[in-house]
Amino acid sequence: MRKYVIMGVQGSGKGTQSKLLCSAYSMVHISVGDLFRWHVQNHTKLGAQVKRTMNAGELVGDDQVEAVVRQRLDQHDWNYGFVIDGFPRNARQAEFFMESYDIDAVIHLEIPDDEVRRRVLSRRLCPNCGMDYNLIADRPSEAGKCDICGHELVTRPDDTPEALDARLHDYHEQTRPVLELFARKEPVVKVDAQPDADSVQASIRKALGL
Ligand code: AMP
Description:
This protein is an alpha/beta fold. Helix content is 48%, strand content 15%. The strands form 2 sheets. A 5-stranded parallel sheet has the order 2-3-1-4-7, sandwiched between helices. A two-stranded antiparallel sheet has the order 5-6. It starts with a strand and ends with a helix. The site of adenosine monophosphate has 18 residues, from helix 2 and helix 3.
């Protein structure tokens, strides 16, 4: 069983890299942002509580995050392990996580802020089937339409320049100290996230000795 945390600012490719790694090694990809988006889309009580915070690009409260993560990991459907993405995002979340779970390594995707802006502002999502697109690297065959289900593509409500600035600020302020905390206890592997997705994936596997 393998247990990894993947960290990096939005747009660094955490989701893409986690999915590639999980499908190769039968691990479960746990994206905390996706868990919250599910709650918002399904109009749950928690969804109503976090919607505005998420749309502003701000961080959801630690108690709500811990509850969602604990509930997800308690399902124990991760026989071959998991890659957790988008968590922990601050020192308190990291402490909770390290108290409750052992992990094998932290994967840190490194990317300059300017490249993040370029990538994130060209990101599009299919609200129907969840497929991700990018107008620079991964365009849909027909402009504005999902290749899989034909639904109209949308911009994530938190992929605006203002929300992105808020997230970059939070990342640098709060998430970097998390890396320092982890580095005292767990192996942290740094990977350059600027090359194409397959090259980044190869670097991750090499760094993890897979
Ligand atoms: P993401 O898909 O990882 O960009 O997450 C989308 C949004 O969900 C974030 O902007 C936050 O509002 C919320 N969120 C996801 N993970 C966390 C976390 N670990 N702590 C606080 N808020 C989170």
